[in-house]
User: What shape does this take?
Amino acid sequence: MLSLMGVCSSYHEAAVYQASLINAGTPIIHSNGFIQHVFDNADVNVRTIDGHGTFHAMGGIQCVTPGSCVDTQIKVKRILNGSFSGAETIRECSFPVRKKNMGLSLLKIEDLSKLEQGTCLNKGYAHSLFPLNVAWIVGVKSQPGWGGFMTSVMKNPGEHETSYIMATPFINLDPSNMSTIFTALHFAAEQSRKQKQTCIVTFDQPLFLKASDIVS
Assistant: This one.
């Protein structure tokens, strides 16, 4: 009704605009941009009554620092036929079956006191991490919340760069499958190779354990 009155665009027009953005491709990242990839489970429409339209996939983002190195001024061409020929996709890669838990043997556990050697961590906070964790477990309310604690720890008078967050295409496979994780790692490695930089990928712990088996 509002669309017919000229107040806003119609749903069809909004859908065409969204499809045109997808078809336009991803923004250009200049050579001075550092990319960190983050992947996690992506569950869509999991609470539908009939269960239709529900799918589980692997979703990801690219964190580009500094954000100013991302050229977002791309030309968006209006599409009319619903074709997504220009949309970026991730090629699926199958992973051969191996013995599990091979990667765990390569993990290194670092002493938290080494965190003080960084320039962004306030001196003395590394030694207070353990007692603070105990205080949170027993319910002591005098300590700051996690957000406030991290803000205090990461205080730095130096300059900071703002990152630009870009979504990557979904990997339409079971997110806990080894081939899905291998596909995500392969995509991240290709993107990092284009930037001529070290590949850094972040997973949650269950996916990280499987990723460790893959790269071992």
In short: The chain is about 30% helix and 15% strand. The first helix runs from residue 11 to 23.
